[in-house]
Amino acid sequence: MTDYRIDDDGWRIPVKTNDSPNAPSSAYKIVETSLRLSIPPIFANDPKSGALEMLDSLVMRYVPALRAVLLTHINTQFKQSAGLIIDESPFSVTDVQFTALVWSPTIGQRMRGKVTLCSPDHISLLVHHTFNVTIPREFIDCQTFKYANDSATENSGGGRWLHTSSTQVLAEQGRDVDFSVIERNTTNGMLTLTGSILNSHLKDGVKDTKKRRKSGTSSSTKDDQANQSNEPKKASKKQKIPIRTANSSDERTESSSNESSSSSSNDDAQQPSSAAVEAKKMKHKK
Length: 286
Hints:
The chain is α+β, with helices and mostly antiparallel strands. Among the domains are: about 1-105, RNA polymerase Rpb7-like, N-terminal domain (Dna Ligase, domain 1), CATH 3.30.1490; about 110-205, CATH 2.40.50.1060. Helices cover about 30% and strands about 35% of the residues. The strands form four sheets. Strands 7-8-9-14-13 form a five-stranded mixed barrel. Strands 3-6-5-4 form a four-stranded antiparallel sheet. Strands 10-11-12 form a three-stranded antiparallel sheet, with no helix packed on it. A hairpin with a 5-residue loop joins strand 1 and strand 2.
């Protein structure tokens, strides 16, 4: 028997009653939604055909308004009796309501994929033979598992991850692997996932690990602040730059000019005049 639950986004998700809490769950959702479309003028006589063609162009692509990959749509209807033409644009803008089947995995959701490639840096998987998933090395327990590239797997274009003290295989090409969704990435209308196979993510979930990471970063920042506080205060005083106003700068320049003029006058007073020097010379000649 299959039941349904409603998530935070309003999606209706099928849930099996006999599933365990850590079992992989489905990311397929059915939703009643609407989109605003711009129908080309070529469909002026048959706008519904234009709306259907516009929706068909979005199939198997990530739609930001739905926050999911659109798989199919049915029961398409217009929400208004007439479209809206804005300014000089020939396109008719209208809201279309329909029922959609989408694929929308959530952060922390546990899923299952088939391994397509193993390398020392990451593991690549395919979910439902369609959607790409990458598991970076940082989300693999490298203390328990190691990468091996033997002759049997070298020709196939990838190695495998093995247990360090036994022959247990963690991941190899064609093998199913359970993972937890860490991040969702969208590029050119395609949705890709970043997964983790750490036991902490598979059992405890992703939120607890994020909290531990935040606490670690906060402790490091506290240490940095403590180190900065231990620095001598003179250095901090040197970094302070005083702000001078226009009046203060004017006063400073005037005082400097006065000082320069007074210094020049003193210098002139100290130096003897040319007439006095000539009079002395005449006395010596006599």
